[in-house]
């Protein structure tokens, strides 16, 4: 199967078969001066070139292809906006090409050469091409020698390719290449020393290896700068070797999307005991996106999981006191996420002096941002779940005292969260929501810090205000388990002076995410087939052809297991979930069973869901 995937640079969702390659890279034309021209070369271009050359492409078979200078100029010009300029590029004589000036003017006028790029950079590209050209001796005596030499069709370049196809299809997944005459091995595309599939057709940036082969899930981390979003998922990656086997997965591979060097450095700093720097709220290129290839230990399923870090300050427009639509355009991935981690610190004052860069937005603004994101989502047919992640909970643990509090004043007591009644946790369940709520209840009952109490109250209020919008869970954690210090070269020894971090509850966040995307069983060895969408409809198997406003069709047993999973993962089952949950718990007997009144009851519930969705 071929899956759609996301470019984590420009944010476009792409068909799995959509990919381009850099012909300049394949021909080894890059001069290394930082101003190299990207020459788009698509799988269709490759197939057409092979056909013109009389070659047959096959999966895993390398073949040497001939490319004329005329062809190359056409590929360089294929993104010109003006057809006139495209024709002009391929109309260049060999002498005009060699002298650079005409080509440089065309590149500049077509917007592919920045105004500040010097002509000598284009000359370096031309020189690199000329060094690889092979002149084809005249074969047509009726063509004058000089005309033959000026015709760019008579200058050839050669390179090797080895295509890899999507299994069982005629679609090219990626290629290996070499411009050497007799290469020992062909090379996969790579960036910053890491393998990539190719490049994005929209922005020319690297595309994650595995894109299109595997389902691609986006997890958006949203919060103020002080919430520690980046530290959280960097620590999640580094903490995973301690328990990945218990999660039923192999140790994930960190993938490259063009920002790998930044992510790799953040991971290395965290390993050595240094805090990650703040996410830059001014430029999208500075954000930390971390992508992982996650494989199940049994069953063979693999997925790509991307953590998308968004600076809350950039998403908020102070002048209107609401989410910034301009910011959402700059961060398009944030409105495409499959789930959201709404990160807030257990104390808005954080670690005090250790958090000297105070948050520029408060929790009220953060909630307005989250609401704005849900309103602006591209896919209106699904409502992704949200997890309120309370970070730096080590602060609360250190403040806990032996004191008594009236349970009715505790926002996390069952008396104030009646939706928790009737639930139970079985030994071996992947995620224990009741355990999380008990932990928060105990913290609230024993801390004396007013700032912590206010922050916890905000989390409960946020849940109450949004529990009819989307499925919600609450998890507390600490990325570092302590205040983190940033590395200062003049002050510290990088290898030896770092802290010994003690992360708390990160495995709980991993479990919740993996359960949602069907990589871990939620209960009784049941895996979700799709991420639950709040208010999604159900109907019976024999009614598939009827027009119900539903997202998915579930058979009865799947529906029963799925409803149980919702109770395990989220605090707020919908009314339909509650009705179906009670229905499946109530085993029919006697006359009800004989008259099939039990089945009719289920059909009534499902019909009501459809009516609700229609309204």
TrEMBL record:
- Polar residues bias located where? 400-410
Renumbered residue ranges of the record's region Disordered:
400-419
Q: Which InterPro entries does this entry report, sorted A to Z? A: P-loop_NTPase
UniProt xrefs under Gene3D superfamilies: P-loop containing nucleotide triphosphate hydrolases
Please give the superkingdom of this protein's source.
Bacteria
Q: Please state what the protein is called.
A: Uncharacterized protein
Q: Which organism is it from?
A: Faecalicatena fissicatena
Upper taxonomic lineage: Bacteria, Bacillati, Bacillota, Clostridia, Lachnospirales
